[in-house]
Amino acid sequence: MNILNVSVNGEAREFATGTTLDALVADLTAAPSGVAAAVNEAVVPRSQWSGTLLDDGDRVEVLTAVQGG
Fold first, then answer.
1. CA atoms of 54 and 69, how far apart (whole Å)
2. CB–CB of 50/22 below 8 Å?
3. Tens digit of pLDDT for each residue in 9-47?
4. Helix (H), strand (E) at residue 61
5. How many angstroms separate the CA atoms of 10 and 49, rounded?
6. Contacts of 58 (CB under 8 A, 6+ apart)
7. Domain of life here (predicted)?
8. 25 near 37, Cβ under 8 Å?
9. Of 29, 39, 35, nearest to 8 (Cα)?
10. Of all helices (H) and strands (E), which one includes residue 19?
11. CA-to-CA separations, 3 to 7, 17, 28, 51, 55, in angstroms, rounded
C-alpha cells in the first residue's frame, strides 16, 4: 500500500493512496454540516468531496463553522 503525505490544516498527516476528501473530512470531524474544505487553496464543493482523490503533497484545509457571540 502506498502512503500519501498530505498537509491537513498545516499538520503533516499520512493517508493511504486512494483516500478521498470526504474520507479525510470524516476522519477529522463528525459534524453533519457547517464544514468547508479546500485542496491546494481551492474550495471544493461538498458535492465533489467523494470524487476528489488526494495526491501526495496536497495541502488540505478543513474549516468547521462555530456559532457564538
1. 36
2. yes
3. 999 999 999 999 999 999 999 888 899 999 999 999 999
4. strand 59-64
5. 20
6. 4, 6, 7, 39, 40
7. Bacteria
8. yes
9. 39
10. none
11. 13, 6, 18, 19, 10
